[in-house]
Amino acid sequence: MDFGFSEDQKIFRDSLRDFLEKEIVPIADEKEKIGEPATREDAIDIAKRFKKIGLSPDIEDIGGFASDLSTVGLVAEELGRVSPSIALLMGYSLSIPAVLQFLPDGMDLKERLLPKMKRSEIVATYSLTEPEAGSDSRALKTTAVLDGDEYVINGSKTWASNGPISNLALLVAKVESGEQEMFFIDRDQSPYDSSELGHLGLKFGSTGELFLEDCRVPAENTLTNIIGGIMSGGKIEELTEDLEMPSDSHVMDLLGMMNPVSLVLAFLRIGMAFMATGISQACLEASVKYSKERVAFGKPIGKFQLIQNMLFKIATITETSRLLGYKALDLAANGSPEFRTASSMAKAYSCKEVVDAASYAIEIHGGNGLSDELPIERYFRDARMMSIPDGTTNMNTLVVGRELLGPGYSAYV
Ligand SMILES: Cc1cc2nc3c(=O)[nH]c(=O)nc-3n(C[C@H](O)[C@H](O)[C@H](O)COP(=O)(O)OP(=O)(O)OC[C@H]3O[C@@H](n4cnc5c(N)ncnc54)[C@H](O)[C@@H]3O)c2cc1C
């Protein structure tokens, strides 16, 4: 068992931190204070900055980096540490457009969007939730009906991160058989309307509703068709090679083992778990620093045992969250379907406990913890957002319960 990063990963983490401090923290601090959601221009500006350090959906930039899933966890944590809003903005725009480069040459979606992807100009959203279908995603009402060589999609979506500013959507709808299918929707070609939703934290995040009215999408744009193309014709080998995957990596095996919707959800959950770990880490760093600086009763407050107890709790939450996250990623890298349960455990734990971590950080900072002059109150608001997206704490708890008890014990199906 190896709990450490390699030397290369440490160098990468240091340069990422340096980049985030210089280029991203000033934007995050300013925009979170203003409290308005990002525009598409903001999102593209940020994506182009990330491209400069090799973080883009383009395999030519990201190749070797994406080969090790633990580095993906590292990036999600580091982004969560400085700005969960920007982490969400980037998470979808890094991952969803990456698929474009594995489509067969000549496929319309690839021809239309690949140049934009290369320029980091795609703002992507993943949209499953509907007003009457959140945890119970079987209740989806959005339909996709085949008409010639196009699907006609009708329905409303809600709480789509990046949705209002997106120009590419990976959207879930029910086809005529009643099965769920995911569609890649190029907004310029297949327009959909949207509106923003306000929320407690993640203020710079753009989250909203999508409205699809007779939205016509090429039939070949389904995820099933695209994964089928990747699985056949040597594409999987090409992908492994381009991503410089080590020969003992079995992550691609998951494509054949889990249905695409479950697989996407498991990776989204793990992304949220690492973002929450990043917030806990930020709370820990700020609290340790303040405990040494702030003097009360003639001593730094860090000398008080009750303060040390709170530091212990924040540190333990942070460390446990991190370990659960890397355990899940290790299972994914080994192509183990246990990845699904492990990602639920990591998400449920980290995204719930981070609220306690942020609350202790406020307590340690006293009145300053509640002031908007310091980022601690923002950590708390952002932390409280974590338990809901990509499966609530309850739902992820039930995924683990079902796994522990075996067939026949599911509390929700
Ligand atoms: C900031 C933010 C970003 C989001 N981003 C996205 C996104 O990008 N794409 C997307 O598709 N969705 C997104 N979502 C939506 C999110 O995934 C849903 O809000 C979530 O799945 C919960 O659904 P709901 O809000 O309808 O709550 P409900 O499903 O109505 O749940 C309400 C409460 O009931 C509980 N509950 C429900 N069923 C059970 C059960 N069987 N047993 C026990 N408890 C139960 C839930 O745990 C919850 O506490 C986002 C949400 C937020 C807040």
Structure description:
- With 413 residues, the protein is α+β, with helices and mostly antiparallel strands.
- It has three domains: 114 residues, Acyl-CoA dehydrogenase/oxidase, N-terminal domain (Butyryl-Coa Dehydrogenase, subunit A, domain 1), CATH 1.10.540.10; 99 residues, Butyryl-CoA Dehydrogenase, subunit A, domain 2; 146 residues, Butyryl-CoA Dehydrogenase, subunit A, domain 3, CATH 1.20.140.
- Helices cover 55% and strands 14% of the residues.
- It is built from 14 helices and nine strands.
- Strands 1, 2, 3, 4, 5, 6 and 7 form a seven-stranded mixed sheet that branches. A two-stranded antiparallel sheet has the order 8-9.
- Helix 4 crosses helix 10.
- The longest helix is centred in the last third of the chain and has 34 residues.
- It starts with 6 loop residues before the first helix and ends in an 8-residue tail after the last helix.
- Flavin-adenine dinucleotide binds next to strand 1, strand 3 and helix 14.
Low-confidence stretches: none
Query: What would you say the CATH architecture of the largest domain is?
Result: Up-down Bundle
Report mean pLDDT, rounded to a whole number.
93
- Which structural class best describes the helix and strand composition? alpha+beta
Which word captures the global form?
globular
- The percent range for helix content is 40-55%
Bound molecules: flavin-adenine dinucleotide
